[in-house]
Amino acid sequence: MPELTPVLIAKLIAAFGFGSIPFAVISMWGTGIDILKYGSGNPGFNNVLRYSKWRSAVCLIGDVAKGILPIALFATGEVSGWMFGMAAVIGHCFSPFLKFNGGKGIATSAGVMLYLYPKILLPCVGLYILLRLVGGKLKWTERGTIASLSASVLFVVLLLVWQSRHMALLGFVLLLFVAWRHKKNFEVIAGARAH
Q: What is the pLDDT of residue 3?
């Protein structure tokens, strides 16, 4: 664990700042639509996708980059990479630009995973795409949530198998945080199954 120096704290704050940039809002500039009041009201890729594919691509690229950039700039190893990556994800979820509101952290988490473990992320992306396609065909409720969190679970399992228990534990902490951010989606899924 890196020593918590003033320089490290400043870098963590900067990582949080990178993460807090609301690309979902930026991608909707010029439309006259407030993404916080549109669709699900979530400032993230899936909600922008309801409006426009190309705008959702802008949002996705920006949100993924938020997970990559702080690690690329500041990290000196795996553990510090996780620290800066998690700071960026927290910034995305609690953006001061959105009155400490924000997205659910999947795309920014994917940026963290992509930078730290690109080979491990690849099969997870494959699972995500497969579940999105199957979910679309079968008209699953909250298929984006199911695909995203299933891919995140696979990522943690692969970390355990191919890396170490310590790295898998860090991945699990991130998974728990992102899953907590999806609590309303779980309620929708539970409600749909009850009917």
A: 84
Looking at residue 191, what is its pLDDT?
78
Distance CA 168, CA 173 (A): 9
Predicted TM-score (pTM) of this structure:
0.94
Domain boundaries, the chain: 1-116, 118-195
What's the whole-number average pLDDT of the chain?
Answer: 95
CA distance 7 to 26: 30
Distance between CA 192 and CA 30 in Å, rounded? 35
Return d(Cα 162, Cα 156) in angstroms, integer: 10
Distance of CA 172 to CAs 40, 66, 91, 165, 175, Å? 26, 20, 19, 10, 5
Q: What is the pLDDT of residue 194?
A: 67
DSSP state of 76: S
